[in-house]
Design goal:
single chain; Helix Hairpins; Heat Shock Protein 90; six-stranded antiparallel beta sheet; six-stranded mixed beta sheet
Length: 516
């Protein structure tokens, strides 16, 4: 089963949102970094101006160690907003100071021979830091270092301004992202999602039988090409289906014609068979009547001729009755039938037949089988016929003659009307499709150790008037038996091979509840 996934529209929208937010985020990040760099540059420039201002005082007033000029410079530093400062002389002695300088070394921002600028509290995730720590040397007229100035410049105002800029950039990025995402979703729906939905709806309507359904091609792009290909496919599909419908109509007509032809042929064959089967005893009967017409030689011969004539009439009557049994609809039975009892009675009756002389019957009956709903007399007739056929098939066998009778519960696949379509074992699993289902059937098998039946004969064994017994058989027993079982929703199957014996299996629907 395929994994559940987002639709194409949702995936594309998610991609647009992610790409837009990522792009706006990167732009905002670089913008914030640029603003911080510019703010830091202006603060460093401000510190350079302060240093230059102090150096102007120093050049105009003389060395710090000789003059009190640093006092004027300190006043200028305070006026410039410097929070902490320190003047040291040539021997590193503190001449003047104000505030507290930081102990932290900080991170170098700018370093040159004239001035060193370090950021205190700065870092990758800390921003610009809390202050700038600046140190700058001073030189006398000889170019020697006469003192040093160290002071700090607060970054609080810069941090506040950059925070405002960050908030402003965030709202602008959010606003721009909303516009970009909205426009992207609009054009996506118009250019991709809506046409795909139209294709899906058209495909659904075509699958429902609307073969004339087509999609409108509105663009000359990939989606338009897909729509044109879809319409071409729909045209070909409609043409193929119409061709199939035409062929199907012709096939149905041909099948009906073949059915009529085969029915007429079957009726002709049946009539010819009946004429042949009835013709033989009628010919004999005609001869006997002719003897009586000419006059018998004595009373005993006359009785013999009459007896034989009556026997031939009995043969004709039996043939007619067999066909009447086949032509009549099966008689409904309200009494449940226990299959093992019917099998036992049939075996007991068949054993009295001369064909069972020297034949051993082995019973393998399964107990607890469901009941049947059919005429037990007809069922007994079928079983007796199969038993006698099995015994007669072994009349030329020199070895052991055995008939094995077995009952079992099997399952068979059926159509909606309950007719069997495919044999299945009891332990098989079946999932019904459409109107198909599985029902329980009782199988009664009759296996002999006779000479067997060839494949060609097995295919015709249930045809009327077909027999392998020559003059000993009429060819109606299996035909009538098969017709009786089929009339009650069952079936008879044969499996055999030359010299391997034959097995006839009768399948009968039980009263057990159908399995869905």
């Amino acid at each position: 089963m395929p994994k559940a996934q987002l639709g194409i529209r949702s995936q594309l929208i998610a991609g647009i949102v992610i790409a837009t937010l990522a792009g706006m985020g990167l732009v905002g990040l670089f913008s914030i970094i640029a603003v911080e760099r510019i703010s830091l540059y202006w603060k460093v420039t401000e510190a350079q101006r302060i240093v230059e201002m102090v150096r102007v005082f120093q050049r105009s007033s003389g060395p710090f160690a000789e003059q009190d000029a640093f006092k004027h410079a300190a006043a200028a530093l305070k006026a410039a907003g410097v929070e902490a400062y320190e003047f040291t002389g040539r021997d590193n002695r503190v001449l003047e100071s104000g505030g507290v300088l930081p102990d932290e070394e900080g991170t170098d921002v700018s370093y040159s021979a004239d001035m060193r600028v370090r950021s205190i509290g700065a870092g990758p995730f800390k921003g610009l830091g809390t202050m700038l720590y600046i140190t700058a040397p001073f030189h006398d007229n000889a170019g020697l270092v006469s003192g040093r100035l160290a002071f700090t410049v607060s970054m609080s105002e810069v941090r506040r301004q950059t925070a405002e800029v960050r908030r402003l950039l965030f709202f602008f990025a959010l606003f721009d992202s909303s516009i970009v995402i909205g426009l992207g979703v609009y054009f996506l729906s118009r250019s991709i999602t809506s046409p795909i939905r139209a294709l899906t709806a058209a495909a659904t309507r075509i699958s429902g039988g609307s073969l004339g359904e087509r999609v409108k091609v509105e663009a000359d792009n990939e989606i338009g090409s897909l729509a044109r290909s879809f319409n071409v496919m729909a045209d070909k599909l409609e043409a193929e289906i119409k061709a199939l419908e035409r062929l199907n109509t012709e096939l149905v007509s041909t099948q009906e014609e073949l059915l009529r032809t085969s029915t007429l042929a079957a009726i002709g064959n049946l009539a010819a068979g009946i004429a042949h089967e009835v013709g033989n005893p009628l010919g004999a009967l005609s001869g006997y009547l002719d003897i009586l017409r000419r006059g018998a030689t004595d009373e005993a011969e006359e009785r013999e001729v009459v007896s034989r004539a009556i026997s031939e009439l009995g043969r004709i009557d039996a043939i007619v009755r067999d066909f009447l049994d086949v032509s009549r609809p099966p008689k409904a039975s309200d009494t449940p039938v226990e299959i093992n009892s019917v099998v036992t009675e049939a075996v007991s009756t068949a054993r009295a037949h001369p064909a069972f002389t020297g034949v051993k019957v082995e019973m393998r009956l399964t107990e607890g089988l469901p009941f049947l709903m059919m005429d037990d007399g007809k069922l007994r007739q079928v079983f007796i016929n199969l038993l006698i056929n099995a015994a007669e098939s072994m009349r030329t066998v020199s070895g052991a003659k055995t008939v094995v009778v077995a009952t079992a519960l099997l399952k068979r696949q059926c159509d909606a009307s309950g007719r069997m379509t495919a044999l299945r074992r009891k332990d098989d699993r079946f999932l019904g499709k459409g109107g198909e289902r599985v029902r329980e059937f009782i199988a009664v098998s009759f296996a002999d150790t006779g000479s067997g039946i060839s494949e060609a004969d097995a295919a015709r064994v249930f045809e009327p008037f077909f027999t392998t017994k020559g003059a000993l058989g009429t060819g109606l027993g299996l035909f009538v038996s098969h017709s009786i079982i089929k009339a009650y929703g069952g079936d008879i199957a044969v499996s055999s091979g030359p010299g391997a014996g034959a097995t006839f299996t009768v399948m009968l629907p039980s009263l057990a509840q159908d399995e869905q």
